[in-house]
Amino acid sequence: QLQLVESGGGLVQPGGSLRLSCVASGNTLKWYTIGWFRQAPGKEREAVSCISSSISSSNGSTNYPDSVKGRFTISRDNAKNTVYLQMNSLKPEDTAIYYCAAPFAYLLPCTDFEGDYHYWGQGTQVTVSS
């Protein structure tokens, strides 16, 4: 069974950067699409990024919503069984708990639909404040 653990969150000033990591165990991450989601207090969980399996027909394609496009970059290191989310030019509205997630099945295309994801990490808090 795939297990996911996020790290790298913290407190950062507006305009700053953080890199989140999602480390997998229990299975090989290269087979899975990985999504990053976030949930701010009082708000619904939203997708912030997705990267498909680099060995699928989607070949590591990525998706971003307009709210983070150009500021966030998702990448994967299959040798380390890790997916990263590099977050630059952070804004106070980026404050949230950030989760990584994977679908149950292998080799699916990227999706920002929360219901398509089966495995979830415990989340890491990101706070953007001066």
Q: How do the strands and helices of this protein lay out in sequence?
A:
Layout: E1 3-7, E2 10-12, E3 18-25, E4 34-39, E5 46-51, E6 62-63, E7 72-77, E8 82-87, E9 96-102, E10 119-120, E11 124-128
Parallel strand pairs: 2-11
Antiparallel strand pairs: 1-3, 3-8, 4-5, 4-9, 5-6, 7-8, 9-10, 9-11
What does this structure look like?
- The chain is mostly beta strands.
- 0% of the residues lie in helices and 43% in strands.
- It contains no helices and 11 strands.
- The N and C termini lie far apart (40 Å).
- The mean pLDDT is 94.
| Oligomer type | single chain
The average pLDDT value, as a whole number, equals 94
End-to-end separation in angstroms reads 40 Å
Flag low-confidence runs. Answer: none
Question: What portion of the residues fall into strands of 2 or more residues?
Answer: 35-45%
* H/E topology pattern: EEEEEEEEEEE
How many strands, what sense, and barrel or not for the largest sheet? 7 strands, mixed
Radius of gyration: 14 Å
The computed structural class is: mainly beta
Features:
mainly beta, 43% strand, 0% helix, 130 residues
Entry summary:
The protein is 0% helix and 43% strand. With 130 residues, the chain is mainly beta.
